[in-house]
Automatic annotation (TrEMBL):
Gene3D superfamilies: Glycosidases. This is glucan endo-1,3-beta-D-glucosidase. It is an enzyme of class 3 (hydrolase). GO terms for cellular component: cell surface; extracellular region; fungal-type cell wall; plasma membrane. It comes from the Eukaryota. It comes from Schizophyllum amplum. Its main location: membrane.
Length: 364
C-alpha cells in the first residue's frame, strides 16, 4: 500500500550531519560498553526496576502472532528523527509479549541499532528483519546510506537477532505505477525488477565482505511480484489487505489466505530457488479520520471488526503454516496527519501503547 511506505527523504546537510552523529554515538557507545545495559535506565512505566529486562508482563497479552510489522515512532528523516532508545525499549517489552518476530521498513534514523540495542537490554526472544527502503529516483542515495548503516549495525551487534534484510518496500508497485502501468510481467516490470535486483546483489556482496550469511529479500504489494524478481531473492514479503480488496470482514481471513496463495506462493513455486513467501502486512483498520473512508464498501473500520479478523485469521494462519507479519504494532499519528482516512489507525495498540478494545487470541 503506497501510503504505508516509511517516508525516506533527502534532507539538508545540517539534518544529515545530526543523524550521522546520532548513529555514530549510539554505535560507538555500544562498542565501548562492557555490559549489555546502557548507563541510563529506561523510563518505561511497565518496568519494575532500572533493569529493562525486569518488566511487568500484561496478562492480556499472549505470544500468538507469527510476526508484527513495526516502525519505531519518530523514525522518518523528514521529521528529524525523533525516535529514542527509551521509547523503543518500551515497544520491545510489549512486542515480546505478543510475538517473537518483527519486521522493519527502513534503516534511517538509526532504528536498526536502536531496536537491536533494546533487544539486548531487555533480553527478550525477538528476531528482526531489517529493512532498506529505497527509491528509484535518487541515484541510489537512500539505498547506499541505509546499506552502510546496516553494515555497521551487523558489525556491532552480530546476527543473532537478525532474520534477514529486506531490500525495498513496494518498490515494484511504485515503479510500475510511475510509468503509467500495473503490468509487472512486461518490459516495465522487468526493468523495475532489474533495478531492484542490482541493490539486492549489492547487499549480498556487502554481507559476503563481512563473512555473514543472512537471507536477503524484498517486500511489495501482493500483486506486484514477478518471476524475474523472485528468482533472485531468498524470500518475498507480500502486503495482502482485505480492506483494500473491498472484502467484507466476514470473508476477510479466507480471502487473505486465498489471495496470498494464488498471487504470491504460486509464483514462488514456479521459480527454481523457491523463495520463502511471507505475508508482509495484513490487518484491519479501527477507524477513519473522515467519513468518506469509514467503510471499504463492504465493512466498517472499527475495533469490533479488527477483533473479528484477529479471531478468524491469527490462530488459523499459525495452524496452517502461513508466515505473516500482522499490521501493525501501534497507530502512527504521522500517517494520519499526512494521508488521513484510515492510514494512521491500523495498530493493535493506540499510539500511547495502550491496548485497543480487543482481545489478543490465545493460540496453541
Amino acid at each position: 500500500m503506497l501510503t504505508w511506505l516509511q517516508v525516506i527523504a533527502v534532507v539538508g546537510l545540517l539534518v544529515a550531519g545530526a543523524v550521522a552523529g546520532i548513529i555514530a554515538g549510539v554505535l560507538v557507545s555500544r562498542k565501548n560498553s562492557s555490559s549489555s545495559s546502557a548507563s541510563s535506565s529506561s523510563s518505561n512505566s511497565s518496568s519494575s526496576s532500572s533493569d529493562p529486562s525486569n518488566f511487568d508482563k500484561d496478562e492480556n497479552l499472549h505470544v500468538s502472532f507469527y510476526g508484527i510489522a513495526y516502525t519505531p515512532a519518530g523514525s522518518q528523516l523528514d521529521a528529524n528523527c525523533g525516535n529514542s532508545l527509551d521509547d523503543i525499549i518500551k515497544d520491545v517489552q510489549l512486542l515480546s509479549q505478543i510475538t517473537t518476530r518483527v519486521r522493519l521498513y527502513g534503516a534511517d534514523c538509526n532504528q536498526s541499532a536502536l531496536v537491536l540495542e533494546a533487544i539486548v537490554q531487555t533480553k527478550v526472544d525477538l528476531t528482526v528483519w531489517l529493512g532498506n527502503y529505497i527509491s528509484a529516483t535518487d541515484a541510489g542515495e537512500a539505498y547506499e546510506r541505509q546499506r552502510d548503516t546496516i553494515k555497521e549495525v551487523i558489525q556491532t551487534y552480530g546476527t543473532d537477532h537478525i532474520g534477514g534484510i529486506t531490500v525495498g518496500n513496494e518498490f515494484m508497485l511504485n515503479y510500475v505505477e510511475s510509468q503509467g502501468t500495473d503490468d509487472v510481467t512486461g518490459t516495465v516490470g522487468t526493468t523495475g525488477a532489474n533495478m531492484l535486483i542490482t541493490n539486492i546483489t549489492d547487499t549480498r556482496s556487502m554481507l559476503s565482505d563481512l563473512s555473514v550469511d543472512l537471507p536477503v529479500g524484498t517486500a511489495d504489494a501482493g500483486a506486484y511480484f514477478n518471476e524475474a524478481l523472485l528468482s533472485e531473492v531468498d524470500y518475498g514479503m507480500a502486503n495482502v489487505h482485505p480492506w483494500f480488496g473491498d472484502v467484507s470482514i466476514d470473508d476477510a481471513a479466507t480471502w487473505t489466505w486465498s489471495f496470498f496463495q494464488e498471487n504470491d506462493v504460486s509464483i514462488s513455486d514456479e521459480v527454481s530457488n523457491t523463495p520463502t513467501m511471507y505475508i508482509a502486512e495484513t490487518g484491519w483498520p479501527t477507524k477513519s479520520s473522515d467519513t468518506d473512508s469509514e467503510s471499504n464498501g463492504a465493512s466498517d473500520a472499527s475495533e469490533a471488526n479488527l477483533q473479528i479478523f484477529l479471531d478468524d485469521f491469527v490462530c488459523q494462519a499459525n495452524a496452517n503454516g502461513t508466515e505473516y507479519f500482522f499490521f501493525e504494532f501501534f497507530d502512527e499519528e504521522w500517517k494520519d496527519e499526512t494521508y488521513g482516512g484510515v492510514e494512521g489507525w491500523w495498530g493493535l495498540f493506540n499510539s500511547d501503547r495502550t491496548l485497543k478494545n480487543v482481545t489478543i487470541p490465545t493460540c496453541d
